[in-house]
Amino acid sequence: MSSLFAAVELAPRDPILGLNEQFNADPNPAKVNLGVGVYYDDDGKLPLLRCVAEAEKQMVESPKARGYLPIDGIAAYDKAVQGLVFGADSEAVKAGRIATAQAVGGTGGLKVGADFL
Q: How far apart are CA 24 and CA 35, in angstroms?
């Protein structure tokens, strides 16, 4: 029995994520990876950043109820992003003509946008 996906053509390799492969293959010991993705230390290990450890500590020390966010995310964050992207004095922002919704990181936002289109 053939696979359901046997006739599906492979998508081209992602040019941005392919940079990581090129980086890993480069023998230069002084190389620095400035591409997208996760931050690694000089030993290629994922460090626990002090700021992240402190944030986790604060969350443990002051527990709060956690539940689902509103469907479009945190309103104050949405408003701040609108001001950052369009300018706080933008007429479109002031008139409420900008819609903002939060999505999962990375390519999740692209998927949400594609579904909308």
A: 12
pTM to 2 decimals?
0.46
- Taking the C-alpha atoms of residue 23 and residue 38, their distance in angstroms, rounded to an integer, is 14
> Along the 117 residues of the chain, how does pLDDT read in single tens digits?
678 888 888 888 888 778 888 888 999 998 888 777 777 887 878 899 999 999 999 999 998 888 888 887 889 999 999 999 999 899 999 999 998 888 887 788 888 888 888
Question: Which region holds residue 40: left if phi is over 0, alpha if psi is between -120 and 50, else beta?
Answer: beta
